[in-house]
Specification:
Layout: H1 8-11, E1 12-23, E2 36-37, E3 45-46, E4 64-67, E5 70-74, E6 90-95, E7 100-102, E8 110-120, H2 133-138, E9 141-143
Parallel strand pairs: 1-3, 8-9
Antiparallel strand pairs: 1-8, 2-7, 4-5, 5-6, 7-8
């Protein structure tokens, strides 16, 4: 499903609370309405998940991947184990805690409106995976 061109009403059902915050846009990217974001400073700034998503294959020492809501670092060269399956081969660098949903379309790092509490349409979220459901719920973002 093409995400570009979504309207606010395609993503947000109920906006209980939103903030205007600085949203960092990765180089050579744009962020669509419905992009999941994370803030570690109480909602002053937000970022998107930029670590490559895990795909079966071989990883070298120090390569990082995103898998099931966490960032993992390979501890071995030619590592073919699934992140989380072998603590000798992967270090859990921590959860990527989605706690916001972008309510604007932005092309560069700028101030944008971010939903931090409310109800959203799950299948229109960009970057959503089932592992993030509990994190979003804990942050008062309900999926429908």
């Amino acid at each position: 499903m093409e995400k570009m061109g979504l309207k606010h009403s395609d993503v947000v059902i109920t906006k209980a609370l939103s903030v205007n915050a600085t949203v960092t846009v990765p180089e050579d990217a744009t962020l669509d309405i419905g992009t999941l974001l994370s803030s570690n400073d109480g909602g002053v700034t937000f970022t998107t998940q930029t670590t490559p998503v895990y795909e079966a294959g071989s990883y070298d020492t120090a390569e990082e991947v995103y898998h099931l809501g966490h960032i993992w670092e390979s501890l071995a060269d030619a590592n073919t184990a699934v992140p989380g399956s072998d603590p000798v081969k992967w270090e859990d660098k921590g959860a990527w805690n989605a706690n916001g949903v972008l309510c604007d379309y932005i092309e560069t790092t700028s101030t944008a409106n971010v939903l931090v509490s409310g109800v959203v349409v799950e299948h229109n979220l960009s970057g959503f995976e089932e592992a993030l459901r509990a994190t979003l719920f804990d942050n008062k973002i309900i999926l429908k």
